[in-house]
Structure formats: structure tokens, C-alpha cells
Design goal:
By secondary structure, the protein is an alpha+beta fold. The chain is 25% helix and 21% strand.
Length: 487
């Protein structure tokens, strides 16, 4: 908190010094720049804008871009009209503004309409347009909304592969940037390359701006997946795995089935929270073993609206029938079981007592699988647990990796933080349990554990485009999904 406060004060003080001196160069008392809105009104007059232009500064979201336009035009009135000057204001304004304000050679040239136009090359015109577009897009992406594509079928049928959606940052509150040294509009790598798009030399504390709501059960949430393995799925050599900063970890989208403090459990494939069944989303899918008299014609799969992500053929059985694994909604299950060429269909539920070794947590005390999982309490900020071999086997990795502890050692039921052994541990932030709506085809919290609050990116908002990769030329676009709100 001290670091972010110092940075914020440096920005305010540096900008104030710069504007104060620039106001005085224009013949205006410097103190006026410190008065909220009135200072911007005076600056707009010095630029030569209409008195009504100040209204833009009162319109949420638009005011962010209006302020940058005002600052760009304001420094032009002092002869700073080059691309490099605009870039300096955007990224180093708290240093650049005092420098030109204290420079005796910098003079106020008058309103923009009175300054002789300097001819610009085509390159300069395009560069000005591009830098403004990049700044505007970066601010929108960070503060308001970010585009996201559904790459896997883990959320089907609620969200389909090929859905393009907007993720709202303002619902839960925007996170302040943690990794500032990053190429704008990139995530982990520079487009179309394997070159990292960031430098982790500077890591800032991350805080969340006020939002409209908090994460609730049933919300479709985009988050940075915490597990390092999930962030390196395409790299099989563990020695080459990259431990990305939190804000650059891979984005996942799942449904929140349990919030902090909840007890989550899966029984016979059904999710229970605090002992009560969780409402099933309309698009929920489960896996079924389906046996057909013969190989199913691709046209029949098309009639069933099942694509290649929805089924897998096991092959011909001893009785000459053909077995399939199908991911079906309840409605589609009812339809498939009545088909004349289907001989049997049953849910593929892992029996209780069958232990999966690839699930969270990795513990000798845990004997769970994907369909019989838990009960498991989701950590909550302020929740205190006793420290012993049993609790550390479940929560030890969370305490070590995600709960903002710098020096953690866990061994033989002992927890040592910063050289001090603890008998109890109190969690420092909230956590969530996420699952995909395609329950048997989803890598989710059952595999890699809880999602920390500081990994939450935003709330799935609405679909703006949907492309079916298996669709024919004329049916490639799913028109009915356009502008559907995500539920």
C-alpha cells in the first residue's frame, strides 16, 4: 500500500507542478489548475474549445478520453505537438509536464486556431491516429470491457466454441495494473510470435477499484487461472514452464459454483453447496455412453445439432454395435434415447470410491473423483484454520502460492512463514470454486483448486459474435447468438 500511495502522490504532485507553471505562462493564476473541473474548464478556454465542451468531462467513461484530448491539445498550445510529446504525456506525464512547465524557452502560443499549422507528413498523421487509438483501446480494455473468445467446449451449451464475448471489468471493479512494462493490447506474447510481450522487472501491488457487485454463485466469471501447469499446457518440458505475473496468467471462463466460506460437494455428478443442490444452468452437459445398432451417419449428428466436440466414437463392440461417448444436455438426452437406432444410453458417472490422482488436492487423505468430490470448504478472508498435516494437505498449496506470503515452508504438518512456525493460519483474501457447465469435459477447480480474489478479471457480459467452426459456408455464423446476455 505504501508503494502504490507513493506512486499516486508522485503522479499528482508532478502533474500539479507542471500545470501550475503552464497556467502561469499563459497568464493565469497557477492555483486554478488545482480546482477540480474549474481547472479543466480554464484549460479548455486556453485551448480555444467551446464553453460547453466541459460537459464531456462529466459523462462516465467518455470523460477519460475527453481528458486525454484536452491534455494533448493543451500542450500543443505550448509548441509540443509531436508524437513523442503525446507519448510522454501518456506514460510519463508526471515528469514531462514539470519539465516543460519549468522550461524558460517554452511559451504559450495562444489558442489552437491562432497557432500556425505545421504541415504533417502522412507518417505523422497516421502515427497520431494510431497512438490515440492505442491509448483509447488500452484504457477501454483495462477499465471497462475486454473481448474474449471461447476456445474450448468446457462451458457448452451455455457458451459455445467460437463465441466472441465482452467481459465487463466494472461489475466486480477494475484491477490496477500489476505489470506496467508491457506492450499495449497484448497478453503473454507479442502477436504471432513466442516473444514475451512484457518485462517483469517492475511488479506493483494490485488493488481493485469499486465495482457494482461481487462474485456470486452462478456468475460466469473470467479469471487468471492460478495453476502454473494450466498456464503452460502447450509446453511439455517443465523446466521451460513460465510462472507468469498474476495479471498475465492465462484467462479462463467458468461458472462460479461456490463463493468464499461455502462448503462445496459433488455427489453423483450433482453439485451441492452448503448441503443444498445448486440450480443447474440451462445449458448443463453431462457425459453419456451411447450404443447404436450401427455407425451413426454424420447427417444424423447434424440433425441432433451435435458437432465433433460433442461426441467421440469408441468403435465397434463384440456384438457388432457401435459405442459412443456423447456430451448431452438433459433435453438432448431425452431426444437421443428415443431414436430407433439407439440401443442403450447411460450416464458416465465415476463410481464412488474410485480415486482420481489428478484432482485437487493432491493428498493421501483425499479419495475423490470428478463425480464424488468433497465436501470442501472454500477459504474466506479472516477464516482461521488449525495447522496440522490434514489441513495443510488441503490448503497448504493455497497458503504458499496465492495468499501473499513471501517465505513459506511446509513440512511434516508444520507451517513456517518468515522463519516463524504457526499453530493457526488466517487467510488474507477470499477464494472461489469454479466449474464448467460441460461437467465431464472441463478442466476446473476440481483439478487445480481455488481461484484467489486477486485473480478475478471480470464478469461475462454478452456475446457480440459467434462462429461455428464446423458450420457450412452459409451456416458459419450463429446469428441467433448475437447480443445474447450471458447467464
Amino acid at each position: 500500500m505504501i508503494v502504490i500511495t507513493c506512486i499516486f502522490l508522485a503522479f499528482l504532485i508532478g502533474s500539479a507542478i507542471g500545470f501550475w507553471n503552464l497556467f502561469e505562462k499563459a497568464g493565469i493564476e497557477g492555483w486554478k489548475c488545482l480546482v477540480p473541473f474549474y481547472g479543466q474548464f480554464v484549460a479548455a478556454q486556453l485551448v480555444g474549445k467551446s464553453k460547453w465542451w466541459i460537459i464531456y468531462l462529466f459523462i462516465p467513461f467518455i470523460n477519460i478520453f475527453a481528458l486525454y484530448v484536452l491534455v494533448f491539445d493543451f500542450i500543443k498550445c505550448f509548441g509540443k505537438d509531436k508524437l513523442i510529446h503525446q507519448g510522454a504525456v501518456v506514460f510519463f506525464g508526471f515528469v514531462f509536464l514539470p519539465l516543460i512547465g519549468l522550461d524558460k524557452n517554452v511559451k504559450y502560443l495562444g489558442t489552437l486556431d491562432k497557432i500556425p499549422n505545421r504541415p504533417k507528413t502522412i507518417f505523422q498523421e497516421w502515427a497520431d491516429a494510431i497512438i490515440f487509438a492505442v491509448v483509447a483501446a488500452t484504457l477501454i480494455r483495462w477499465l471497462i470491457m475486454e473481448a474474449y473468445t471461447i476456445p474450448t467446449p468446457s462451458m457448452e451449451n451455455s457458451l459455445l466454441v467460437g463465441d466472441f464475448l465482452f467481459v465487463s471489468k466494472f461489475h466486480y471493479g477494475t484491477r490496477t495494473p500489476r505489470t506496467p512494462l508491457q506492450i499495449p493490447l497484448t497478453h503473454q506474447k507479442i502477436w504471432f510470435t513466442n516473444i514475451p510481450s512484457y518485462l517483469d522487472w517492475v511488479q506493483l501491488p494490485s488493488y481493485r477499484l469499486p465495482g457494482f457487485t461481487t462474485v456470486k454463485r452462478g456468475d460466469v466469471v473470467v479469471f487468471n487461472v492460478p495453476d502454473i501447469g494450466q498456464n503452460n499446457l502447450e509446453e511439455y518440458d517443465r523446466s521451460k514452464w513460465v510462472n507468469y505475473p498474476v495479471d498475465l496468467k492465462t484467462n479462463y471462463i467458468k461458472r462460479c459454483v461456490a463463493i468464499s466460506g461455502d462448503v462445496v460437494e459433488v455427489k453423483n455428478g450433482d453439485v451441492l453447496v452448503n448441503g443444498s443442490p445448486l440450480d443447474k444452468p440451462p445449458g448443463l452437459k453431462m457425459s453419456y455412453l451411447v450404443t447404436a445398432k450401427d455407425q451413426i451417419n454424420p447427417r444424423n449428428f447434424e440433425r441432433l445439432e451435435l458437432d465433433a466436440d460433442d461426441y467421440h466414437e469408441y468403435g465397434r463392440q463384440e456384438n457388432n454395435e457401435v459405442a459412443y461417448s456423447m456430451f448431452l444436455t438433459q433435453e438432448k438426452y431425452e431426444e437421443v434415447k428415443t431414436l430407433p437406432y439407439i440401443t442403450s444410453i447411460k450416464a458416465q458417472i465415476e463410481p464412488q470410491g474410485i480415486v482420481r490422482g489428478d484432482l485437487f488436492p493432491q493428498s493421501k487423505y483425499i479419495k475423490w473423483n470428478t463425480d464424488f468430490f468433497g465436501p470442501l470448504t472454500v477459504p474466506k478472508e479472516g477464516w482461521t484454520i488449525p495447522v496440522n498435516d490434514s489441513t495443510l494437505s488441503v490448503y497448504g498449496s493455497t497458503i504458499r502460492d496465492y495468499d501473499h506470503n513471501s517465505d513459506v515452508k511446509i513440512d511434516s504438518g508444520r507451517l513456517v512463514i518468515d522463519g516463524k512456525e504457526l499453530k493457526e493460519y488466517t487467510f488474507k483474501q477470499n477464494y472461489y470454486f469454479m466449474m464448467g457447465d460441460n461437467r465431464h469435459n472441463s478442466q476446473d477447480s476440481r483439478y487445480w483448486g481455488f481461484v484467489p480474489e486477486d485473480h478475478i478479471v471480470g464478469k461475462g457480459f454478452f456475446i457480440w459474435l459467434s462462429i461455428d467452426k464446423y458450420g457450412s459456408y452459409f451456416n458459419k455464423i450463429r446469428w441467433k447468438r448475437f447480443f445474447n446476455l450471458i447467464r
